[in-house]
Amino acid sequence: MTDDVTKTQVSTILATFNAAIASNDVENLASCFYAEQAYWRDTVALTSHLRTFENPYVVAAALLEMVGLRGLVGGLELVGEAHFAVMSPVMVSPCIPFVVVC
């Protein structure tokens, strides 16, 4: 996969994720997490706030709560180069097929 393709796909992922957060809709944001593997670590990676839970809807609700409490605005953006990582299909979110940000 070329650097341009990887960067385009990462940009699409980030735009989808940022739009889901901006929508303030738990179901919309939950669709960005893989149902079988959404755990507390997803929120820790984005917020450094350690809380234990699992389920994409719980993770999404906690993340939206954190965004509101901290008054966060803007979104995630790519800094530097994007790198493609080969992953098992079970580790990929259904709303973003075959691409994983690492």
Which keywords apply here?
mainly alpha, single chain, 0% strand, globular, 102 residues
Q: Averaged pLDDT, please?
A: 75
Helix percent reads: 40-55%
Q: What is the tally of beta strands?
A: 0
Silhouette: globular
Strand content: under 5%
The oligomeric status of these chains comes to: single chain
Number of helices: 4
What's the SSE pattern?
HHHH
Rg result: 13 Å
Describe this structure in words.
By secondary structure, this protein is mainly α. It has one domain. Helix content is 48%, strand content 0%. The chain is built from 4 helices and no strands. The longest helix has 21 residues, at 3-23. The two termini are 15 Å apart.
What's a concise summary of this model?
This protein has 102 residues and is an all-alpha fold. It has helices at residues 3-23, 26-30, 40-47, 56-70.
